[in-house]
Amino acid sequence: MALPVTLFIGVGGFVLATALSFLLATVLSLSAKAMLKASLRKFLYLLDSFPAFLLALGLLALFLKWGGNWDPISAGQTPTIISFMENLFSSALGAALVCTLLLLVPYLTLQFHQSLEEEKNKLYFRTALAKGLSARQSLVRHLLPNAFPPMLTLMSEVFLALIAGILVVEITFSLPGLGNLLTQSILTADYPVVIGLILLLLVIRMVVVWLAEACIIFLDPRARQI
Question: What is the pTM of this model?
Answer without folding.
Answer: 0.75
